[in-house]
Specification:
Elements lengths: L2 E4 L2 E4 L4 E7 L9 E6 L6 E6 L6 E3 L7 E6 L4 E6 L8 E7 L11 E6 L1
Length: about 120
Amino acid sequence: MQLVESGGGLVQAGGSLRLSCAASDSSFRLNHMGWYRQAPGKQRDLVAAISTGGGTTNYADSVKGRFTIFRENAKNMMYLQMNSLRPEDTAVYYCNTVPGRTNYWGQGTQVTVSS
């Protein structure tokens, strides 16, 4: 399965972005999925996760109440709605299974939040 992230960009603090993750095939539907992020000089962390059917979600404390993860299995798509963005949300965002599989990491999409 290949995963392609999109939707990143430059936004002011307090703004919103929606990230998209497109999966190449329907094996996507069989996997718990997640959004990860990596800031410069830091490790890559899981910030949001969603179960195969979308009924269960989990968030890192740092994004809880601001980010929403959801998926459309019929389209092999996953999204991350990010509201009330903060400069500390600046990072490259990736989608992958949970836990992440080495050969599924894509290029990611850059999110930059200016103060």
